[in-house]
Design a protein that fits this description.
The chain is about 45% helix and about 15% strand. With about 600 residues, the protein is α+β, with helices and mostly antiparallel strands.
């Protein structure tokens, strides 16, 4: 199991986002309970250069009895955190996900300030929350003013709350009904000092009259594009309104208004970075539900990382469509193995990229590598918008939103699903085995870095990668062999130049003598295209093992040029050279005797 598996579990089940709070310490992050803002777990990652692997662990707030009840070797006292409630979990291949998720659930419950709700006849009672101090600046107004000072519109809105609505719809339906009633309401109220507030994700019914006046005053200002700091609760309320069609005319209008709010409100949210992350996470989920573009949405780190991981998985799924460099970048991103810093890449990056990509493509075909390393597409229930009170005013029909090649969101019969790849610990172990096994063999082949030890998870790739390396070695040897290239297009020019040179060297008397001495011979050989009579006659002599010295002398020909001329003429039909030089003598390549005789008509 890996640390990322716990982060994904927290995000997908509870929309708890991994927060990277320290710019100077990027390997540390936390999971916070959104209801209490208390830390659930502290994540720690450290790269071990000796083993070439990342060491992962976390301190988790699962209770003082954890060490007594769990006797696993990977559960130990905390490393960074203090107190009896904390323990440390070391993540590796033997870490049991079931136990880790069980400890996470305990930690989440221990850090949750919201006590269990009890519902009687649709009414929530015995509800206890931790108070959050809210600060407002303004003129002094007595806090003991009579309820008569409350605008009648707010009083009437309070009366719209129906306790008869079934419990699971109490918050959302009442929120929508009251919100539409107050959709155009404006207020101008100034509170004195602090107001204590009792809910993180509120509805109108959770607010007192004074709190409601403060909220509507702030909302009035926001709608007039005048921004100032407000409690986080107000921000979540405002987002809930927009998503539910209160103050927005469409899903797209809701997103656009929330984009403007984020841009203008950033200076007032600098002290609570998780607030903006929560808003962006909700916007992402809302866009998925309504199939809206993600333009202008600054995705939370965890979601952005998940989508980037999807893209990398998509590259490896169809690796043959991508360059060697992109395939290696995907491998590097998914293993976080610092692949490009390995000795083989430092020695010859282009060759390393080629061999890694070739190894993966071969294993895709031979070993079904993708399914081995990433499993199959899985469909699970998806619970979006847990940070807001959402009433689905903008009706969505059953739909599928394919966000990329490996992830889609689906609505079916009122239930949302997400379909994506969820690599198991075993899948990830095999993928690491591919990287480790490939690196091990390439280091030996390229003589780069220290040797790596063979691991059991490497076994499934060793044979295939060994074959690839052997083929590469043969190609390397061929590349080292000298190549002799003959430009056949120049042979005719060479022959003409040689003939002119010969004629210039002869006297008139020698020319007459040549004419007298040459006696016509009966040539029964078939004329070959591209050869004149004398070259055909020479070829016939060679085939019959006759001496051609006199023929060459009589016609002032050079044996090497004659050989090239004949080879060129027969290359199209036979596909190879039929004559070769042996001690300055022309000799027939015996493998082609029958073909040459056939060409000569013999």
């Amino acid at each position: 199991m890996e640390l990322n598996d716990l982060a994904k579990y927290a995000n997908e089940k509870y929309q708890i986002i991994e927060e990277f709070k320290w710019e100077k310490f990027p390997n540390f992050s936390v999971l916070c309970n959104p209801s209490s803002l208390k830390w659930i777990a502290l994540f720690m990652r450290q790269w071990d250069t000796d083993s070439g692997e990342e060491i992962e662990c976390c301190d988790i707030r699962s209770g003082r009895d954890t060490l007594l009840n769990y006797h696993e070797s990977y559960i130990n006292p905390p490393i960074r955190m203090h107190g009896h409630d904390w323990v440390n979990i070391r993540f590796h291949e033997n870490t049991n996900p079931k136990i880790v998720f069980e400890l996470f659930e305990k930690a989440r419950a221990l850090t949750d300030d919201l006590k269990q709700e009890k519902i009687y006849h649709g009414r929530v009672v015995n509800k206890t929350y931790a108070d959050t101090p809210l600060s407002f600046k303004g003129d002094v107004v007595s806090r003991n003013k009579s309820i008569v000072d409350t605008p009648q519109r707010i009083k009437d809105m309070k009366k719209l709350f129906h306790y008869e609505i079934t419990a699971n719809r109490t918050r959302t339906l009442n929120f929508y009904r009251q919100g539409k009633f107050m959709e155009e309401f404006e207020d101008d109220y100034k509170a004195e000092g602090e107001i204590k507030y009792s809910s993180t994700y509120p509805t109108y019914h959770d607010f007192s009259f004074e709190q409601l006046r403060c909220y509507f005053t702030w909302r009035t200002s926001i709608r007039k594009h005048v921004y100032y700091a407000a409690p986080e609760n107000f921000v979540y309320m405002y987002m809930s309104e927009l998503f539910s069609g209160i103050g927005s005319t469409s899903a797209l209008d809701a997103v656009e208004k929330l984009k403007e709010f984020i841009e203008m409100y950033q200076p007032y949210a600098s002290g609570t970075p998780y607030l903006l992350d929560s808003i962006h996470q909700c916007m992402f989920e809302y866009c998925m539900m309504h199939q809206l573009p993600l333009d202008g949405i600054n995705l939370p780190i965890d979601t952005k990382k998940a989508l980037e991981e999807d893209d990398m998985i998509g590259i490896l799924k169809d690796a043959q469509k991508y360059s060697d460099t992109k395939v290696c970048m995907a491998i590097d991103a998914l293993t976080q193995n610092k692949l490009f810093e390995s000795p083989v890449f430092k020695k010859d990056q282009k060759k390393a990229e080629y061999l890694y990509a070739k190894a993966w493509n071969v294993l895709l075909q031979k070993e079904n590598a993708f399914e081995k390393c990433f499993g199959k597409l899985e469909k699970t229930v998806w619970n979006p918008l847990r940070y807001v009170v959402y009433y689905d005013q903008f009706v969505i029909e059953d739909t599928t939103y394919q966000i990329n090649e490996t992830r889609s969101y689906q609505l079916s019969n009122g239930t949302w699903y997400i379909e994506k790849y969820y690599p198991s610990a075993g899948n990830k172990r095999l993928f690491r085995g591919f990287v480790h096994g490939t690196e091990m063999l390439l280091r030996k082949y390229m003589n780069a870095g220290r040797d790596l030890k063979n691991k059991p998870e490497d076994a499934w790739v060793i044979d295939a990668i060994s074959d690839i390396i052997q083929t590469q070695k043969e190609e390397d040897m061929q590349a080292l062999s000298p190549k002799v290239e003959i430009d056949l297009s120049n042979l005719e020019k060479i022959r003409i130049d040689a003939s002119i040179t010969r004629d210039n060297l002869l006297t008139d008397e020698e020319r007459l003598q040549d004419i007298d001495e040459v006696e016509p011979e009966t040539n029964t050989a078939h004329q070959i295209d591209g050869l004149d009579e004398i070259h055909t006659q020479i070829l016939m002599h060679v085939v019959e093992n006759k001496d051609i010295t006199q023929l060459l002398r009589d016609h002032h020909l050079m044996a090497s040029i004659v050989m090239d001329t004949i080879n060129e003429a027969l290359f199209d039909t036979i596909g190879d050279n039929v004559l070769e030089m042996d001690d300055d003598q022309l000799r027939l390549v015996e493998d082609y005797r029958e073909e040459v005789l056939e060409e000569l008509g013999g």
